[in-house]
Amino acid sequence: MLSILRSLVQEVNSARDLQEALEIIVSRVQKAMGTEVCSVYLLDPASNRYILMATEGLYKDSVGQVSLAYSEGLVGLVGSREEPINLEDAPSHPRYRYFPETGEERFRSFLGVPIIHHRRVLGVLVVQQRESSRCFDEGEEAFLVTVSAQLAGVIAHSEATGAISGLSLTGEEARDVSFSGVPGAPGVAIGTGVVVYPAADLDVVPEKPTEDIDQELELFRSAVSAVREDIERVANRLASQLRPEEQALFDVYLRMLGDEALPGEVANRIREGVWAQGALKQVVQQYVRHFEMMDDLYLQERAVDIRDLGRRLLSHLQEGEQKHLEYPERTVLVSEELTPAMLGEVPKGQLVGLVSVKGSSNSHVAILARAMGVPTVMGLVDIPVNQLDSRELVVDGFEGQIFASPSADLRAFFQAICDEEDELVRGLEALRDKPCETTDGHRVSLLVNTGLMTDVVRSLSHGAEGIGLYRTEVPFMIKDRFPSEQEQREYYREQLEAFAPNPVTMRTLDIGGDKALTYFPIQEENPFLGWRGIRVTLDHPEIFLVQVRAMLKASEGLNNLQIMLPMISNISEVEESLHLIYRVYHEVREEGYDIHMPKVGVMVEIPAAVYQIRELAERVDFLSVGSNDLTQYLLAVDRNNPRVAQLYHSYHPAVLQALVRVAQDAHSVGKPVGICGELAGDPGGALLLMAMGYDSLSMNAASLPKVKSVIRSVGREWAIQLLEDVLLLDSPHVIKSCVDLALRNAGFGRYLRPARTSSAALAEQAVS
């Protein structure tokens, strides 16, 4: 479906005018879904009526002639409700409206989805089928919603305009050479670099004709079959480490190898007289150019998958096997562009770290690395990949740094971190079932941040008391379309059941910024200050409503669901969201589901929200600070940008002052307040937050035992005094040092992590 959608968007974008674009839409959607009818009705702003603008299957003469009032008929119902309507027998519905000039009396099954752009209903996309026995399934409904959401911006634009418009290593003796990138998966690893090069180089393939087309076709089919077997073998090797939805990332590769995808286009080029290797080069480079021109980081990363497949196919065509790689016992895999298939080539138990020059925290590799618990650094700049082979490497997935050929002192420093991590996990197991309570009786709830089911397993083993942040965008990111209501419901049910009766706080879809969907790209010059979080889902209520409905149905019989709204910047967003949630709640109850109204909270992650805590708290049940984004916005620093990431500091005085204010204002109106983010998982930060009065701290599962151990070993009065002391300081680095010193004096030096600083400073710290 993703390839169909991409092709559709390309065609629509190249259309000469709106009418041609609409005709392309109805034609391609009808074919893709195998329906008898596909039609587009657009809402005319002047008359406030829906007009049939294009159809495939109804009488063509009715185009431009048929119109409906704003709330008339099933089309009007879809538009006014702003969500899909799926009927097996449309004529029996009380809102059905018959137009003889269309010839639609022959069609009984009806599926309509709204076309919405920036909260404005532009029209309705409809598919119909003659047989009353056919009911469009959830996958088809989800696909049509995806098409509608994807094309809404194009249609809106065409309506308005009338046309669719470095560093390098310094020799064998070099030590402690560091490179900064972006954290891909947390953790620290020490191992030997193994550089993986492309299996073959498409760029050097010459252009030449073939005299034996049948032979070239047979060679290419054999290559496709061999590569498909390779991918399946890799997927099977990783099967024990990944859940089905995570392993499904390999299905992306297999779908690309389907006859209707890349192989089909290559075969067509061969039939035109181009030899197999040349045809493969032409098609792959065409795909890659298209994705790289999209100016969207996540979509650019799909070019990585295409290139990887192209190289593997070329390798088999050339009948030259990739040189046999020796994988050390502790392998750090390094590549210009790591791909999921590369991970599976490393023997089980030997992969300890990943380094990729290209890519981001949203790439398929990063998703798999987090699921597998492998420390990863992505997006390194100017790194001499070929010089890292066989070198000892330190991968710091917490800070997004790698160190090549570390000195004995630096290696010992990071090895101590690795050893302490292992020792702490073993030594703190006894705390799993004990409460997180200070020596003077102050209780704090320790929750976890999750996204994949593998997070849940670790969380339960570490004694988490619930989920403070479930990232619902993860199920959306591993799909090639919006997941259906039933698919979402299954994901959510797993999380709710695993932690019942403890609370599970689910954040509504938070895309935009550094989180993108392949099938719903958001292209902006400044995405962090643009269309993201609640702004997207309120502009697309059809997405929000389906997600909330799935959450509520998943909570039946458990009633431990809490819903959290991201990126809130004003009261109206909360009120509009609550209106939609209450609406869905009553609809689900009317459907017969025995559910309780969940608690609803807001995330405080925009500075504007810091100054509206009392007003926000009056409307919701709880508040939760997203400390990562709040820090980023307060300091105007993109924490994923290596050039300014050193300015990002959770201990900045402005950040601490804002956190104090949030806790005080929330409690002044009697509402609980929690926090999720890196600061909550830092032992020193957790102490300060506990002293501020935060009721719950949510963090990654690996941080939970250490935080619990520290809090259980101190009194709250001691922590309050530490907080008062650091609030008098004006430098984040001095504050961090002060907190670290207090922890060391209290006997918790083994819990401290290195601050983002120079390798020389780290080495000096290791010696001291």
UniProtKB/TrEMBL annotation:
Keywords: Cytoplasm, Kinase, Magnesium, Metal-binding, Phosphotransferase system, Sugar transport, Transferase, Transport
All residue ranges annotated as the GAF domain in the record: 17-165
GO cellular component term of the entry, any: cytoplasm
Major subcellular location class: cytoplasm
Cofactor: Mg(2+)
GO molecular function: kinase activity; metal ion binding; phosphoenolpyruvate-protein phosphotransferase activity
SUPFAM superfamilies: Enzyme I of the PEP:sugar phosphotransferase system HPr-binding (sub)domain, GAF domain-like, Phosphoenolpyruvate/pyruvate domain, Phosphohistidine domain
Catalyzed chemical reaction(s): L-histidyl-[protein] + phosphoenolpyruvate = N(pros)-phospho-L-histidyl-[protein] + pyruvate
E.C. designation(s): 2.7.3.9
Residues annotated as signal peptide: none
Protein's cellular compartments: Cytoplasm
GO biological process: phosphoenolpyruvate-dependent sugar phosphotransferase system
Highest taxon listed in the record's lineage: Bacteria
UniProt similarity note: Belongs to the PEP-utilizing enzyme family.
Protein name, as recorded: phosphoenolpyruvate--protein phosphotransferase
Species of the source: Marinobacter nauticus (Marinobacter hydrocarbonoclasticus)
